[in-house]
Amino acid sequence: MAETIIRFGIIGCAEIARKVSRAIALASNATVTAIGSRSLDKATRFASANNFPPDAKIYGSYEAVLDDPDVDAVYLPLPTSLHIHWAVLAAQKKKHVLLGKPVALSAVEFDTIIEACESNGVQFMDGTMWMHHPRTAKMREFLSDKQHFGQLKSVHSCFTFGADRDFLVNDIRVKPDLDAHGALGDSGWYCIRSILWAVDYELPKTVIALRGPVFNEVGVILSCGASLSWEDGKVATFHCSFLSNLTMDVTAVGTKGTLHLHDFIIPFEEKEASFSAGSELAFNELVTGWVPLPSKHTIRTDLPQEALMVREFSRLVENIKAKGLNPEKKWPTISRKTQLLLDAVKASIERGFETVEVGN
């Protein structure tokens, strides 16, 4: 049976929409049907610059995309402050929702979005692309291997990049009315997600923000970190920043093995990605080296991770449209847990680095 082609509308012309529109074109079960911006001229230029299909509709408003009966699903690369309005409206219009991250300004806001999606029977997924790379599944196999990795004891995650002056002054991620979480919501979202992924989405008991966060002149976070603790003794730390060199590392340490990853969000190369794994590592007799050496594992893929994300999202939408299945709850559940921890870090900062207990 031929695949059902899911017809996407894109709401907004953010830079990340260029990458996702290419991903939609690469996915065999998706196509761009419409683009909407607050400016018709901007939408027209965006469609032309990104090689949209000639029959793609171009609208000068977001509402027009949601009102288009030919649109099955929407991608929303909007500022976080706009998510609750447009994601809820999209769900009410029966459009499946692929939403940029962070998903909301708070878990309370996100609950409103999810309630709208659930009550209207539409699929929700956030745009955390690395979750869909085949490397991610391969690394999960190692972390689940009790013989070679053992019991997880600690996770350490870092995502930083050195933003230029224009970014630090003009980007929406440094504007309190657009993306109030700043670096915590942007790069910190990925760090928190990587920690949750490593612990198989078990929420920690407590979170405490690290001292020394950096804010801009209007109070938006440019750099911060936190430590997380679980009741069974697991611990995790992360650091995120707009002010340091590009780094995206994850280290997961077990009782018998260690996993290292140096490009977890965007692989060094589009069609292959690697990680390092070592089991029962030790020093040699003269303590001049290690035995055994960690092994490098390389996973190749014909499609970039963002296209795999679109393909998986479209498959879930097809299951609903063509097979009458219910929306998959895995993805909104993971999004909500990530948002809960982001909220807890922010609360700890605001309370003078107090320990914050994580709710449900």
From TrEMBL:
Question: Which Pfam families does the record match to this protein?
Answer: GFO_IDH_MocA (PF01408), GFO_IDH_MocA_C3 (PF22725)
Q: Which SUPFAM superfamilies match?
A: Glyceraldehyde-3-phosphate dehydrogenase-like, C-terminal domain, NAD(P)-binding Rossmann-fold domains
Q: Which Gene Ontology MF annotations are present?
A: nucleotide binding
The membrane spanning regions, by residue number, are: none
Residue ranges of every copy of the Gfo/Idh/MocA-like oxidoreductase N-terminal domain listed in the record: 6-125
Ranges for domain GFO/IDH/MocA-like oxidoreductase come to 145-259
Signal peptide (UniProt feature, chain positions): none
- What family, per the record? Belongs to the Gfo/Idh/MocA family.
Q: What is this protein called?
A: Uncharacterized protein
The lineage, from the top, is:
Eukaryota, Viridiplantae, Streptophyta, Embryophyta, Tracheophyta
